[in-house]
Specification:
This protein has about 400 residues and is α+β, with helices and mostly antiparallel strands. The chain has seven helices and 21 strands. The two termini are about 35 Å apart.
Length: about 400
């Protein structure tokens, strides 16, 4: 006989970070063991949902709307706060702790200040964030208004209606976030043996998040396809999944196909193409001269409606590294420090990436973005749990 459930009131904030939305939680309100977080997060977001809509939870049926961020005291001396990201899958009972969400990272600094995890005074705040998923430091800088993160501003980001106050994110030393190496195989290009497809040329790069980049043209695509067009082509989706699995094994992220298939986040898969006139999801025209390259990305089995920020960082870094497929399709530039303009389904994203060749090794000092964020709701998320469950910590 199934055990009765009760609704547990879990303190939470619901926030938008960049082009993503998710729950923001305190580590103090969760069990010590991360494995015990999984059923809580699934129940909170409404997963698994065979209909793919997460109507019985806070998720929105898209990978960019099924995210959870957990913040707590820093576990290393050079940080102000710890940040653990969880990607909650939609149709399966899986929570992935491998990647970092760059977009939601823009909401972490403001959360830390507004929740009293970090003290800040004056007109601006700088928060050093330790991302526990990658072991890397993210520096968040944003304006303050009456002690809280400012939300009104003139910054417009593709994929989000209106404007907001800018949050600067500097990802320090982002190389090797998932595998320990900027170029996991030591090469700018590799040939992957993909079952059912033969040999596919790819660039395997790990900066911010591990990614595999392939030419859109190599799969009969222009690179201007909408996410819906890609998702509706079931044979194409099968091929992209097979490439991702082959890349995962080559990068050392998984030992075999079964393990690679179970790890749905990293490596992310990107289709790269030269600049070309295209149309945004809003219907607006995106002229070719406003971008340096065009990209479409598969995130957790779904074509992303914009670009995951960690993938954008990796793509910009890859475009700086001579010999990669991203560098091949990128508009040539004489200025290695100029922002890269990445064309995507929602518009054009600017990314700053400092990549230099030192001897025979490429190194990345930092990657930088500007995002906007806004706290949308604060209170409690009601999580159905067994009556006998005691996952919340008891505090004096």
């Amino acid at each position: 006989m199934a055990e009765h459930l009760r609704l547990h009131r879990l303190p939470a904030v619901f926030a938008r970070g960049g082009t993503s939305k998710g729950l923001m939680l305190h580590s103090r309100d969760l069990p010590d063991e991360r494995a015990q977080w999984v059923p809580i997060f699934l129940a909170a977001m409404g997963s698994p949902d065979p209909y793919g809509r997460q109507l019985d939870g806070m998720g929105g049926g898209l990978s960019s709307l099924s995210k959870i961020c957990v913040m707590g005291p820093p576990s290393r001396p050079d940080a102000d706060v710890d940040y653990t990201f969880a990607q909650v899958l939609i149709k399966s009972s899986h929570v992935d702790f491998q990647p970092v969400c760059g977009n939601m990272s823009s909401a972490v600094g403001p959360f830390a200040v507004e929740e009293g995890l970090v003290e800040a005074q004056g007109e601006s705040a700088t928060v050093r964030i330790h991302n526990t998923n990658t072991g890397k430091i993210i520096v968040s800088t944003f304006a303050l208004q009456e002690g809280r993160a400012a939300v009104e501003g003139a910054l417009e980001i593709p994929g989000v209606a209106g404007t907001g106050a800018p949050v600067r994110l500097d990802f320090l030393d982002p190389g090797g976030a998932s595998t320990g190496k900027l170029l996991p195989t030591g090469q700018a290009r590799d040939m992957l043996d993909v079952p059912g497809m033969g040999r596919i040329e790819a660039s395997l790069v790990d900066a911010g998040n591990a990614c595999v980049f392939v030419r859109a043209a190599g799969l009969g695509l222009t690179g201007r396809e909408s996410p819906m067009q890609i998702e509706e082509d079931l044979e194409l989706m099968r091929k992209l999944g097979a490439i991702r699995i082959a890349a995962s094994i080559r990068m050392g992220l998984a030992a075999d196909e079964a393990e690679a298939a179970s790890r749905t986040a990293v490596p992310f898969l990107g289709l790269v193409a030269p600049p070309a006139d295209s149309t945004a999801l809003s219907g607006e025209a995106i002229p070719a001269d406003t971008m340096d390259l065009n990209a479409r990305v598969l995130s957790n089995g779904q074509p992303h409606r914009a670009l995951p920020l960690g993938v954008s960082l990796c793509l910009a870094v890859a475009a700086r590294i001579e010999g990669t497929l991203a560098h091949e399709v990128c508009r040539p530039s004489d200025d290695p420090d100029a922002d890269l303009r990445l064309g995507m389904p929602s518009g054009v994203l600017r990314v700053a990436a400092e990549a230099r060749l030192h001897g025979q090794q490429w190194q990345v000092r930092r990657g930088s973005f500007y995002r906007t964020q806004r706290r949308l709701f604060e209170g409690h998320v009601l999580v159905p749990v067994p009556v006998s469950a005691t996952f919340a910590r008891v505090r004096a």
